[in-house]
């Protein structure tokens, strides 16, 4: 059996993987006398690799949908293509978000001190390979492998700051939580495989009944129907377990406890990666599993997701209220934002799956732009004021007016208020799905949460313009790579503010 | 002439952008004068070419698709109820640049840029004919106003600014929810189409829910008792120009929203909630007047007087009759002119005496600065509703609207409202007269504050238009009522 591989389709992860190897080699073989700093020698190729992958994604998006690693013609059942890797609109959009955010993360990490450079970029690129592969995966095994490829390097990245107890603790926490969640997912997958006999998402969808009409599913006989009913119970359990594993990654309540400690302990670029790249990829996995494989069971999982969304945004916002540490606050805020992203899926039983996913995806796009922007400014400020306390932002407008205005813009966007129109439109899209899908209670919960969110975002924004505390260093903060990162984030968020159509129509 | 609405937004925005780089510090006041002057000229051109024969129709419409995915359209237009407010906004903003900018506490450049940005939001709110666009402009106003209070305000500015922004943000979130409810049930964001549909597609229950949500959001801005507590602090701490725009224009955005969105689009909701609205309105009238009697600070007193005056506007709206709503729109303009003037004058007094505490001011202002005292007296007398001045008509017609409310509303209840409102007018007269007798009359206290000049030339320039318009609209109210009346009748479906 000969597998023909469409190398164009897998170009983005391939480029990233090759660059990762290259970076490691350069780090290993770079002579001391090369006349070029190790930092530059590894960071510039890494950046180039990510940009090349981004270009490949754009080129793929302009062409036809491609798929590869399919079941060969002769072995197909019921004519299902059952491809493991598909470069379609959804996967390319998520790959694009991941890589655009990766450009910013690499720019942010260029000033990171006290970490081994070669390992840092190698691990980063490995994680990105996983994050780009994940949304393109169309079978459960590839999904898990890609998810682990994304997660494992992140443990190491988190702990890479040696002699830092907090980083070590954070890495251990992340590792334990992640391993447990993967184990649960794998158990769920084994149950689903046992019932349906396949791991490809399209195969699972075909093997499940489209509704709970079990008698028809079982061929009409009551005995078979009784068995089928029990088998479906196993599928339900499997689905919940698979879902539980994936929502660990996106820090959805009740699996959210790790987020603030890990974000705070990790170097800030890694926190940005966790909060944007890892989260986008995790959501892609959730969308794929729920809408490609288990669309027929929407009536089962939609109410569950609605409750999870409501809990997530409420818990995230309430805990964010009490934070005084910048990264911890962003961690809880990103938990809360996960709730908003999840909310449209809560009405999946009532609405077209494609519009629901489009709304969530639009929110993710806008969220990624504004959140990575906020992390960029936090990186900048934390270099001068490592305490990273919200009060360290007092008087930022006096010393760094541009940074303060950019931060204010990102915070206002996260709050969802004009002139941060991007955030407002994102919220409106989600609100509309929820209201049209007749989930009034969730809309009310969202409204209350939006108000809670306003408070802590605005309290932070107000500090930027307050007079500085005595004793806080008043140095001007300058860093060229971070400046570029901020500029990229500001431009993208600005474009989304005035042409949100770009984010809304991206899946059409 | 469809470029006019766009130019009205683009000119102040261009001004704000022009003032952003530090190099323009020297020209801050001049640039402010030029850009707001051009905006005023554009508004006057708009008023000149406006077709008064068809005031009910939205004219100079601009309708561009902005976000097709959300049905959001960049839809602007002017009709009889927005035209006067647009002219008022551009006039007050221009006058704000005539008096010296608040320069002591920070850069006049940033201050001028924020005021121009504020103007964009205010004019945009009155121009918008799309629900979401209305909301966007409604919100754009908050941030510059927050900074105007927080950076250039009095000693308690930070607390006042935080209170202001939190209150209004809370209101906004509820307002947005209400607008989205309207949208999800009708599938349209077009204010013109929704107003002519008159609530079609929404059951009475939905309309009541939407009206309560939209109304709460707007009521915070108005402000309606008991949601008014942000207002006295914000007004007292804000710099003079901030208070003038806050009282003169920002409060109107709330009542304008009732007349433009809540009442025409949700008629059944309005009919159900109107008694509550009326009740809270009269409580506001009496409460505002009683609070004024207890104030020792001139600025705070005028702030509380706004609560009372906006109560009359709300009472007019709650009557749901053409008379009442016309009264509300008239009261809007009159309050903008008179209270704008009052805050200007009090700002002038505070500059001279160094305080606005009524006891500390002593008496005898008419002896020490006869012109200043006279203008203060004029503004107070106009504010208490003396017949022949603009303040009278808004209150009188609102009470008349309550005397004969729309069909379906309880007449006895509204008669009670009218009676309480009437008592409110007496109380209003009382506190203004008490204040005048303590400040302007009597013997001047020892020259503790040192000598100071009477009304300066630039102050005359800024105050005269307001004095003149107060007189014009007082003597010739139909000049304004004929503009608003056709729109109001169309909204209410009245002949």
Give an overview in words.
The complex is a heterodimer of chains A (508) and B (495). Chain A is 72% helix and 2% strand. By secondary structure, chain A is mainly alpha-helical. In chain A, α3 runs antiparallel to α11. Chain A is globular and about 80 Å long. Chain B has one domain (3-492). In chain B, α2 packs parallel to α4 and α12 packs antiparallel against α13 (298-318). Chain B is globular, with a radius of gyration of 21 Å. The model of chain B has no long low-confidence stretch (mean pLDDT 86). The A-B interface holds A 362, 412, 417-419, 421, 424-425, 428-429, 431-432, 435-436, 443-444, 447, 450-451, 454-455, 458, 462, 465-466, 499-501, 504-505 and B 67-70, 132, 135-137, 139-140, 142-143, 146-147, 150-151, 158, 161-162, 165-166, 169-170, 172-174, 176-177, 180-181, 183-184.
Separation of termini of chain A?
36 Å
From the alpha carbons, calculate the radius of gyration of chain A and give it in angstroms: 23 Å
Multimeric state of these chains? heterodimer
The tally of helices of chain A reads 20
Q: In which range does the helix fraction of chain B lie?
A: over 70%
Would you count the extended β strands of chain A for me? Answer: 2
Shape of chain A: globular
What is the typical, i.e. mean, pLDDT of chain B? 86
Q: How many helical elements of chain B?
A: 21
Biggest sheet strand line-up of chain A:
1-2
The mean pLDDT of chain A is 86
What sequence of helices (H) and strands (E) makes up the elements of chain A?
A: HHEEHHHHHHHHHHHHHHHHHH
Structural class by sheet pairing and helices of chain A: mainly alpha
Question: How many structural domains does the protein architecture of chain B include?
Answer: 1
């Amino acid at each position: 059996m000969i597998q023909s591989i469409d190398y164009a389709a897998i170009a983005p992860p391939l480029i990233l993987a090759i660059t990762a190897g290259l970076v490691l080699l350069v780090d290993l073989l770079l002579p001391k006398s090369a006349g070029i700093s190790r930092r530059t020698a590894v960071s510039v190729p890494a950046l180039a690799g990510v940009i090349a992958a981004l270009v490949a994604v754009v080129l793929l998006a302009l062409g036809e949908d491609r798929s590869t690693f399919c079941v060969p013609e002769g072995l197909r059942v019921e004519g299902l293509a059952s491809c493991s890797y598909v470069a379609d609109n959804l996967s390319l959009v998520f790959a694009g978000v991941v890589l655009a955010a990766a450009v910013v993360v690499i720019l942010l990490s260029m000033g990171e001190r006290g970490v081994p450079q070669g390992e840092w970029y190698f691990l980063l690129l490995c994680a990105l390979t996983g994050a780009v592969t994940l949304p393109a995966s169309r079978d459960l095994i590839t999904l898990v492998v890609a998810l682990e490829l994304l997660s494992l390097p992140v443990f190491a990245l988190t702990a890479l700051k040696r002699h830092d107890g907090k980083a070590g603790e954070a890495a251990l926490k992340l590792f334990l939580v992640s391993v447990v969640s993967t184990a649960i997912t794998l158990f769920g997958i084994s149950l689903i495989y046992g019932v349906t006999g396949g791991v490809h998402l399209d195969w699972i969808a075909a093997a499940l009944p489209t509704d709970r009409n079990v008698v028809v599913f079982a061929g009409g006989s009551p005995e078979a129907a009784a068995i089928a009913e029990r088998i479906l119970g196993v599928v339900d359990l499997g689905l919940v377990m698979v879902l539980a594993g994936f929502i660990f990654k996106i820090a959805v309540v009740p699996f959210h406890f790790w987020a603030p400690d890990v974000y705070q302990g990790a170097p800030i670029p890694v926190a940005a990666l966790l909060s944007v790249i890892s989260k986008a990829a995790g959501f892609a996995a959730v969308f794929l599993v729920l809408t490609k494989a288990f669309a027929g069971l929407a009536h089962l999982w939609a109410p569950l997701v609605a409750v999870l969304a409501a809990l997530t945004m409420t818990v995230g916002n309430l805990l964010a209220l009490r934070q005084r540490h910048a990264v911890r606050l962003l961690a809880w805020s990103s938990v809360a934002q996960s709730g908003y992203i999840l909310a449209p899926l809560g009405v999946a039983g009532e609405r077209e799956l494609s519009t629901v996913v489009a709304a969530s995806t639009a929110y993710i796009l806008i969220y990624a732009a504004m959140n990575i922007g906020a992390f960029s400014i936090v990186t900048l400020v934390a270099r001068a004021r490592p305490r990273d306390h919200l009060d360290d932002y007092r008087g930022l407008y006096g010393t760094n007016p541009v940074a303060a205005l950019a931060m204010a813009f990102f915070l206002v966007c996260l709050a969802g208020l004009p002139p941060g129109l991007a955030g407002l439109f994102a919220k409106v899209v989600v609100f509309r799905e929820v209201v049209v899908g007749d989930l009034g209670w969730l809309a009310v919960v969202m409204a209350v949460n939006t108000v809670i969110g306003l408070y802590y975002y605005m309290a932070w924004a107000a500090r930027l313009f307050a007079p500085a505390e005595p004793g806080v260093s008043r140095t001007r903060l300058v860093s060229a790579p971070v400046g570029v990162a901020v500029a990229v984030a500001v431009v993208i968020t600005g474009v989304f503010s005035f042409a949100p159509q770009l984010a809304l129509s991206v899946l059409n | 002439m469809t470029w006019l609405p766009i130019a009205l937004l683009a000119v102040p925005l261009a001004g704000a952008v022009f003032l952003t780089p530090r190099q323009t510090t020297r020209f801050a006041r001049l640039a402010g004068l030029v850009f707001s002057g051009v905006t005023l000229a554009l508004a006057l051109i708009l008023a000149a070419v406006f077709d008064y024969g068809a005031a009910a129709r939205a004219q100079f419409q601009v309708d561009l698709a902005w976000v097709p995915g959300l049905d959001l359209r960049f839809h602007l237009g002017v009709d009889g109820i927005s035209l006067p407010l647009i002219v008022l906004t551009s006039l007050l903003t221009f006058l704000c640049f005539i008096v010296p900018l608040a320069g002591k506490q920070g850069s006049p450049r940033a201050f001028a840029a924020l005021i121009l940005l504020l103007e964009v939001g205010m004019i945009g709110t009155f121009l918008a004919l799309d629900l979401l666009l209305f909301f966007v402009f409604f919100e754009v106003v908050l941030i510059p106003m927050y900074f105007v209070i927080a950076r250039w305000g009095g000693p308690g500015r930070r607390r006042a600014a935080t209170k202001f922004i939190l209150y209004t943000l809370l209101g906004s979130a509820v307002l947005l929810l209400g607008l989205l409810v309207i949208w999800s049930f009708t599938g349209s964001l077009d204010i013109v189409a929704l107003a002519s549909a008159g609530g079609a597609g929404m059951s009475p229950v939905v309309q009541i829910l939407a009206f309560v949500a939209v109304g709460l959001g707007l009521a915070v801005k108005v402000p309606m008792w008991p949601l008014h507590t942000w207002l006295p602090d914000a007004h007292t701490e804000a710099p003079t120009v901030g208070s003038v725009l806050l009282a003169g224009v920002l409060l109107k955005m709330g009542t304008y929203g009732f007349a433009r969105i809540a009442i025409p689009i949700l008629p059944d909701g309005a009919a159900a909630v109107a008694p509550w609205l009326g009740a809270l309105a009269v409580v506001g009238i009496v409460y505002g007047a009683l609070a004024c009697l207890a104030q020792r600070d001139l600025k705070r007193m005028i702030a509380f007087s706004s609560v009372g005056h906006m109560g009359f506007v709300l009472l007019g709206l709650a009557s749901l009759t053409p008379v009442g709503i016309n009264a509300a729109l008239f009261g809007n303009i009159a309050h903008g002119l008179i209270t704008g003037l009052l805050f200007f004058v009090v700002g002038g007094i505070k500059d001279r005496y160094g305080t606005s505490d009524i006891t500390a001011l002593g008496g005898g202002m008419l002896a020490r600065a006869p012109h200043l005292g006279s203008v203060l007296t004029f503004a107070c007398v106009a504010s208490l509703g003396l017949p022949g001045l603009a303040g009278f008509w808004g209150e009188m017609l609102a009470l008349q609207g309550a005397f004969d409310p729309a069909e379906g509303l309880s007449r006895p209840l509204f008669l009670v409202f009218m009676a309480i409102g009437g008592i409110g007018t007496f109380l209003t007269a009382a506190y203004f007269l008490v204040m005048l007798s303590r400040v302007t009359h009597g013997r001047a206290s020892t020259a503790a504050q040192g000598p100071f000049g009477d009304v300066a030339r630039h102050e005359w320039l800024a105050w005269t238009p307001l004095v003149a318009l107060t007189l014009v609209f007082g003597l010739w109210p139909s000049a304004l009522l004929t503009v608003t009346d056709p729109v109001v009748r169309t909204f209410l479906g009245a002949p």
